[in-house]
Write a sequence for this structure.
């Protein structure tokens, strides 16, 4: 799987027997010995954190499924039973529910890191595309899972999101009925959502394997964003174990502390209170909002005054990520050496946060209360509607205008010849005490 | 198809160049059979997700509209969906009849949305045509309904007047069966 030559030598008899039949120990050993750039910073640790998130969600989910009832008459009560009667059920459910939020925190940081250091550029387009597929599957899985407790937000979230399909011209209505399994969201819908919510994480797991395969074939990027020449591999790379297992392990502990803080001290902070009301098909909540990690895309959906246009914009906001490797025209990978692009990137991060904020507000509410405003087209300028539109405009401009244009026009800083150069003085100041020792151990 | 390629690579393959061979026929026939078989396997699986017979069986609902007082609405369920049955006042009715069609986003006259002889009684599906929320009765700028989710305003005929919803509130198939009783579906 990995691009480097195997250094594994089977020692015991059983290892030798196994190695010619199923080289699974070799596979693990090679994984741990994988040469990894030695300048990876903590932004790179979220890959490892994400794998733990996925395992946590699958493990807790399997146990929740043993107690959950995918039936409209029993779903809500079965979740409350998990919370009250099932041994440790409250813990498993809170870990699962907050785990989803943690998963998205980590994946957004992971994606922004990839964006900043140009990890999507040749030869790593496939890693990026597989990552986008994982992200899309994560959104689908999270949505399906959110529906299962059959609370008010669950029900109406399902209503709103499945209705998006109905916006497709001509085939929308029949597809919508097919998707719901009836004229309205009902038992058939809940049953299939449960089935798919159980299935998709294993699909994600499969794509994660492909993601890592592509990563180990093309080699890891690094904060400097340069390819490590073959002759410098011995100097610029360290084996994954123990160097990154220890580093990732430390980061994981910090991450799990934050995770535990949410689970034990504020388990409902990231959810919505309305989901503790059983689903009522005859009453809409005053304000339907998705989970926080979907808010930016929800805001983009609302920004467009046309139903189908809004759906296209929302899916386009995710879809544009797939073609990102071909939108960026710069030859320099890391934004460390792209001073102009770095500013646009920081604005992009801010815009993402603004979109998330707007997604949680009523569109007609004033952004700055009391500030005089005027009507522009179909809304007040001083409203979340218009703030969302401006942010949406920047979101798409970033990909379709800024990335292609700035890449051609900006003058990047001088790129170092090696990943050691920015840290030590001169490209070959490599015989310094610390790296040399590391090299001997590796 | 591939016949020319096959022959170019295997000139000894029998048929003169450019002519289809029996092997080409077998390839195409086998490929077509495999695709057909794939569709036949996939279809029952996909079709199983369509509404089941017992779901479709619940397709009609009866309701006595005389229970709805003038100026009020009653929400009933039909096929799991809310249905607004609204008994409009004379003033409301006059207003929606007077609205010029040119001012509508989805032009439809009020007569087209009610049954003759029962003009004050409006029967519409209670889901906003934007994303399916249930609009609030008696709110909004046009005296009909207002959807709080994304700000769609409907008039007292359930027609979209302002906001992101693309269509008027849907009038389901229904008929007055006996006097004031309606059968929906």
């Amino acid at each position: 799987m990995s691009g480097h030559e195997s250094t594994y030598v089977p020692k015991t008899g059983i290892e030798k027997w196994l190695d010619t039949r199923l080289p699974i120990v070799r596979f693990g050993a090679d994984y741990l010995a994988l040469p990894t750039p030695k300048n990876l910073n903590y932004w790179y640790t979220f890959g490892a954190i994400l794998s733990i998130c996925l395992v946590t969600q699958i493990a807790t989910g399997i146990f929740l499924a043993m107690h959950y009832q995918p039936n409209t008459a029993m779903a809500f009560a079965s979740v409350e039973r998990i919370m009250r009667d099932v041994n440790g059920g409250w813990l498993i459910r809170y870990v699962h529910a907050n785990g989803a939020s943690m998963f998205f925190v980590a994946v957004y940081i992971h994606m922004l890191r990839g964006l900043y250091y140009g990890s999507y550029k040749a030869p790593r387009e496939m890693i990026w595309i597989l990552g986008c597929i994982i992200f899309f599957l994560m959104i689908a899985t999270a949505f399906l899972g959110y529906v299962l407790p059959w609370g008010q937000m669950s029900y109406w979230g399902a209503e709103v999101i499945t209705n998006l399909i109905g916006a497709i011209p001509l085939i929308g209505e029949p597809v919508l009925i097919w998707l719901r399994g009836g004229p309205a969201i009902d038992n058939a819908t809940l049953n299939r959502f449960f089935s798919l919510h159980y299935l998709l994480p294993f699909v994600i797991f499969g794509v994660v394997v492909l993601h890592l395969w592509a990563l180990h074939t093309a080699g890891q990027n690094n904060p400097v964003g340069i390819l490590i020449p073959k002759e410098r591999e011995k100097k610029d790379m360290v084996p994954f174990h123990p160097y990154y297992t220890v580093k990732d392990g430390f980061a994981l502990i910090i991450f799990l502390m934050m995770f535990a803080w949410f689970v034990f001290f504020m388990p409902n902070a990231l959810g919505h209170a309305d989901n503790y009301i059983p689903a009522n098909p005859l009453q809409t909540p005053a304000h339907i909002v998705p989970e926080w990690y979907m808010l930016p895309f929800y805001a983009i959906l609302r920004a467009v005054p046309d139903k189908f246009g809004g759906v296209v914009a929302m899916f386009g906001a995710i879809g544009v990520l797939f073609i990102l490797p071909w939108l960026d025209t710069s030859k320099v990978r890391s934004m460390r050496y792209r001073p102009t692009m770095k500013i646009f990137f920081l604005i992009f991060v801010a815009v993402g946060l603004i979109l998330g904020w707007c997604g949680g507000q009523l569109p007609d509410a004033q952004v700055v209360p009391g500030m005089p405003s005027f009507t522009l087209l179909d809304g007040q300028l001083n409203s979340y509607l218009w703030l969302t539109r401006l942010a949406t405009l920047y979101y798409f401009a970033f990909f379709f205008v800024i990335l292609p244009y700035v890449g051609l026009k900006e003058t990047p800083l001088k790129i170092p010849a090696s990943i050691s150069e920015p840290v030590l003085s001169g490209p070959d100041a490599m015989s310094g005490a610390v790296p040399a020792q590391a090299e001997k151990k590796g | 198809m591939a016949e020319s390629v096959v022959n170019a690579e295997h000139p000894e393959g029998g048929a003169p160049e450019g002519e289809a061979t029996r092997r080409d026929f077998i390839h195409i026939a086998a490929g077509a059979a495999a695709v057909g078989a794939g569709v036949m396997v996939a279809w029952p699986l996909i079709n199983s997700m369509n509404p089941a017979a017992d779901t479709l069986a619940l397709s009609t609902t009866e309701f006595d509209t005389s229970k709805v007082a003038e100026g009020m609405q009653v929400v009933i369920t039909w096929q799991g969906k809310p249905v607004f049955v609204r008994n409009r006042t004379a003033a409301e009715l006059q207003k929606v009849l007077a609205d010029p069609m040119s001012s509508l986003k989805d032009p439809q006259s009020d007569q087209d949305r009610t049954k003759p002889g029962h003009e004050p009684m409006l029967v519409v599906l209670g889901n906003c045509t934007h994303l399916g929320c249930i609009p609030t009765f008696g709110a909004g700028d046009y005296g009909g309904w207002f959807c709080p989710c994304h700000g769609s305003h409907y008039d007292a005929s359930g027609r979209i007047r302002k906001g992101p919803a693309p269509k008027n509130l849907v009038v389901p198939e229904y008929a007055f069966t006996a006097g004031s009783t309606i059968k929906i579906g």
